[in-house]
Structures are given as C-alpha cells and as structure tokens.
Design a protein that fits this description.
14% strand; alpha/beta; Rossmann fold; 6-stranded mixed beta sheet
Length: 234
Amino acid sequence: MTFSKRRRVFLMRHGSVTYFDAAGKPVLPETVPLNEQGRAQATAAGQVFATAGIRFDRVIVSGLPRTVETAKRVLAETGQEITLEHWPEMVEIRGGKLAAIADADLREAFIGAFEGVAPEHKRFLGGESIGELMDRIHPAVDKLRADPEWDTVLLVLHGGVNRAILSYALTGQRLFLGNLAQTAGCINALDVGDAAHDWVARLVNYSPPSVLQAESRGTTMEALFHQYRQTRSL
C-alpha cells in the first residue's frame, strides 16, 4: 500500500500575556511581552517537543514580541539554534481604538468575531475585518506550502490567525470558524500534502500545562471583555 508524502506543520499560539495593567488601561499589543504564566507555557511546549525528539526545519513567527519570546523558549528546550523568520503578514487581527466603541457595542466588538462561523464583514474591536484577515493569511499559507525545502515547520502565531489557518485547512474554503479554541501556549499539528485539499488535522488546541483544560470554560476574549468593561463601570 502506498501512502502520500505529507509534511508536518506545528502551529502554536504564543504564551499568555497581560493586555491590561492593574488599573485596566490597555497595554500596547505590539509591545506586550509574555507574563509569568506565558513563559511557563512556552517552556512546557518546548519540553513536549524535546521529549518527542521533534526537530524543526524552519521556525516562523509574526514578529510581535510575544511570538518571538515563545518561539525562543521552545527552541531553548529543544536545543536547536534556528534563525526565526518574521512574517509580518501573520500578525494578529488588528483591533481599532477601544475608546471609540460605544458601551452598547462593546461585547459584540470583543466577542462577535469569535462566535460560530464569522461573516467576512465582522470587525474585531472596530478594526480589521475577518475578510481582511483572510486576505493576508491565506496567501501566506499558500506561500509556505509552495516551498518544498522543509519537512517540519513550527509557526508561533496568534489566536485569531491560528483560527484562520485551521479554518482554511479544515474546510478548504474561505471560512472563519471563530469558535475553534486556541488556549495560550497551545499546540496544533497539521499534515499537508501536495494537493490543495490535502490537509490532515492531527492535533488541535493541545495545552501542555493543562491537558484537560479543566480550569476554565470561558474564552480569552470573554475574559478580556469582562476585564475591560470594569473600566467603564458597566
């Protein structure tokens, strides 16, 4: 029996960060680093790869500090010295100005893009739309697949971006499955063949520090919404 040759994509979300300070003021998302929990999550993911003997041919990050730090901590555990590739087209879905969002629209702005199959016109925090996100993520995925010079690649990206990639792989269509959970520091594993439709999902949202994820049934954006709304006394 002959099997097709597939390559392996490990897709991670960066470790946990603190998006609001103690007073509830937003921290600039382009500069926010991993917090203590996020550093532990990245190290735990690296230990999983090291224990399994996984070796990466390439490591790709969005370039935002939280993806860079996560990738470096993973590689510190695997013992590999690989130059990180910064792909700015893979940065997280861009939000608008929180202050410009009316109180009545706040919940929808935070959570709406991550509920069910999100329509393309849906905007995240009044900023980039789901359609605009897919406009840059899908070509980037196609570019990576078109390069034959790798067998195993690690992508360390973001929750929204990962959903766009997973949705593309699972459906082969221009869809965004917003309710695909992506826990901070999680690992996804996808095998990809030569044909456009040839994707096999092996692992989704595996969280090494909390395998059964029993500590929470909420989402990241729900938590951030409730944290931010307190600053408006809602």
